[in-house]
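#lab-general

N.A. 3:47 PM
ok so I finally got the sequence cleaned up, no stray characters, all 143 residues accounted for. can someone with queue access submit it? mine expired

B.Y. 3:52 PM
send it over

N.A. 3:53 PM
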Amino acid sequence: MIEYMTPVTLWFAIGVFLLVLEMFTPGFFLASIAVGAFLASGTAWLGGPASLQLLAFIIGGGISLISIRPIFKNYLGANGIPTNAEAMIGKESIVASNVYAGEHFYSDIDGVPWDCKCDLSLSKGDTIRVLSLESTVLNMEKI
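B.Y. 4:20 PM
back already:
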């Protein structure tokens, strides 16, 4: 099958492959290189020799890395707002039943039951605060 591929389809396939791989990696690095591959495919389509295709790939990928990648990272990147369990840090709750030190228990935080643990024994009605999280378990402190 590879013997039937023209340079146009080969460069285009490389670009598509890099875009697919980009879906599994952060940072828009592979997408920037894919721009160079698509530019090389266009150069091949216009009849450019292999050396010009390679030059288009290197220059197109390089310019994309320097100029387009930072724009995508700023536009689509994380904005630092905590999500899901990380947003629970600092939230408070009331203990529903007596709990021994180190024992797992459930506590409602913002109306959602969370798996929690505390290094201290807790009594029903104590106020607790989320200190940190380990996987899906919230580490609590008594206030």
